[in-house]
Amino acid sequence: MTRLAESARLVRERVASAAERSGRPAGDIHIVAVSKTVPPERLREAHALGFTTFGENRVQEAEEKISALLGLDLRWELIGHLQTNKAARALQLFNRIQSLDSLRLIDILNARGHENSWVVPVLLEVNIAEEPSKTGFAPGELREAAHLVADCGWLRAEGLMTVAPLAGDPEAVRPYFRRLRELRDDLAEHVPLSQGAWRELSMGMSDDFEVAIEEGATMIRVGRALFGERPPA
Length: 233
Ligand SMILES: *Cc1c(COP(=O)(O)O)cnc(C)c1O
Fold this sequence. Notes:
This protein has about 230 residues and is an alpha/beta fold. The protein has nine helices and eight strands. The chain has helices at about 5-20, 40-50, 60-70, 85-95, 105-115, 140-150, 175-190, 210-215, 225, and strands at about 30-35, 55, 75-80, 95-100, 120-125, 155-160, 200, 220. The chain has an eight-stranded parallel sheet with strand order 7-6-5-4-3-2-1-8. The longest helix is centred in the first third of the chain and has 19 residues, at about 5-20. Bound molecules: pyridoxal-5'-phosphate. Pyridoxal-5'-phosphate binds near residues 36, 80, 221 and 223.
C-alpha cells in the first residue's frame, strides 16, 4: 500500500468512528482533500483512491492544477481568502467558494455571477473565535451578511465554514464547532432562502475533524492527515 493509500484508510476510519458517535452514516460526511502545495501527480493518486473534491486556498495555484487535471471528474472548492480582483477568475475555476468573508466580496461575487449568468454556490466564512489574524464574519455580524446573501440572485448560500483556533487539544475547540452549528441553526430559522437551506457546516481539519463531526460537520477539510506535512510557507 502506498503512503497515501495508508493515510486515506486511516482518515476514513477516523471519519467512520466519529460519524458513528454522532449517529450518522459516514457517507453523510464529505471529505474535502486540501491540496494546497500538493503537486497534480499526487492528486491523481488521491483521485484513484476515491477523492473527488479538492480544496485550494490560492486562485493561481488552483488554476495550474485544474488545467493539469482536466481529464478527471473533480470538484474544486476555494477555502482561502479571495482578493476581489480575482473574483471573476475564481468563479470560473471553483465549484464553490467556501471563504466568502466580507460584505464587499458578497457584492462583487454577485455582480460577477450576474455578468456570467452563473449562480455561484457559497459558504459564509465565520471568524468563530473573533481572532484578529483571521478573516470571516464575526458571529455578531453573521445575520446581516446572511440576509444580504439570501437577497443576492446570483449567489446560492449553502452553509457556513470556519477555521477553529489552533489548539494542542482538539477538545479545546469543541465549543467553537458547537457554536458554528448553533449559528447555522439560527440562520435556518431566521434567514429563509428561496432555494435550499443553510445546510452545510464545513468545519474540522487534520487535527480536530473528529470533534467537528461529533458537533455536526457535514464537510471536513483534510490536508496533512492525507498528504503529509506541507513545506513551510
Ligand atoms: C490548509 C487548510 C486546511 C487543511 O488543514 P490541515 O491541517 O492540513 O488538515 C483546511 N482549511 C483551510 C481553510 C486551510 O487553509
